[in-house]
Write a structure and sequence with these properties.
By secondary structure, the protein is mostly helical. The protein has helices spanning about 5-25, 35-40, 45-65, 65-85, 90-100, 105-110. The model has no long low-confidence stretch (mean pLDDT about 95).
């Protein structure tokens, strides 16, 4: 097993989180649900929060314990999913983008996006 471990557990957690975000988006009360509140503020607020969480993740990578890194990664993933939801981008869309890159060098893939 790789050091990253099996993706099955993370896939289950992300599927549950995705369903929770969808539920909060559809029936959540912005007064009691952070997800509903953030979604009600729109793309800009969701983008700002995702950016903030990405910065906290990077800081944790540089300076904090592995436990904090995992916690900040979880926060970053949650806010990425909220941002995807507010834009109407599905996890299937993200999976398709990842699948297109399978078997391609990261260097080659990045070079193909230039221009």
């Amino acid at each position: 097993m790789s050091i990253l471990g099996s993706a099955d557990r993370l896939a289950e957690a992300l599927a549950h989180l995705g369903m929770t975000i969808d539920t909060r988006a559809e029936t959540g009360d912005a007064g009691t649900s952070w997800t509903a509140k953030l979604l009600s503020k729109g793309v800009g607020a969701c983008a700002d929060k995702a950016e903030e969480e990405a910065g906290e993740f990077i800081q944790a990578l540089r300076e904090e314990s592995n436990e904090r890194v995992a916690s900040e990664a979880a926060d970053m993933l949650y806010h990425a999913l909220v941002a995807l939801r507010v834009r109407g981008v599905s996890l299937d869309d993200v999976a398709a983008a990842l699948e297109k890159r399978q078997g391609t060098s990261g260097i080659a893939e990045k070079a193909s996006r230039k221009g």
